[in-house]
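Lab notes, practical 5.
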Amino acid sequence: MALALECPKCGARHPLAGLPSARTFPCSQCGQKLMVHPNKGGFIFVYDRANGKVQNVWQLTKNINFVKGIDPKTGELIGRRDLSLGKADTPLCPAIAGGISWNSGAYSPKTQLYYKISQEWCMDITVIRTTPILEPMAQLNIGADFKLVAPPDGPARGRLDARDPVTGAKKWEINYKEPPLASILATGGNLLFVPDSEGVVHAYNAETGQELWSHGNGMGHNAGIISYMAGGKQYIAVPAGWGSLVSDEFAALWGEPFKSMAKNTGALFVFALKQ
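Output from the prediction step:
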């Protein structure tokens, strides 16, 4: 999911400038209408919404070796790693599940920060010749055998970053034993909700990253999360339930609670916020 941003004109006060958490935009961003797009390879692309031209590319995922980098002005790959037939000498990073997955991040106009999950894992890979199966219907044909493994800098893990969406400057981070696979939510009340893979929903101060509250839902999360109003009260709704192409790899990497976590059940949890 891409994020659309509209920067104030140069010299103009931001609509939230009276708030302690508000910041000014550098003049290079003033008046621009931008789109921030997270890429599965672990990079964040920033485009001009008017013409689609690359304005910046910054790296979210730490463990990346499928390229040496990406040109922040053109978006062109630098030093792409092409694999030959046979087993690769070193693991490929990130793994096939991506340095960034489908789950959407969040942006807070109040803090002007972009919150996004990074997945730190790699894979042992052997490139093989395959014969595509096309009947009775086309089948998945990857052309390789692979196994998810830990990255060079430590154990496989997940991380939540709070960053400037345009420059990528980091304000704070929170590490998780496993990558959270659910979407995250920022609220106007300066809260950030993160449903993790072990089944715990965390609420953080969106400005500082301080954990304010948590609740165990008993099973992992890999869906969305929303906030809504009813009867003058604000609620947070998050579905819990485990099992997917990516989450099925968790048992081999981390063991429990994923080895015994049920995959044929689910529940919707709704929490009321204090007024």
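Observations recorded by the TA: DSSP finds one helix and 20 strands in the chain. The longest strand covers residues 113-120.
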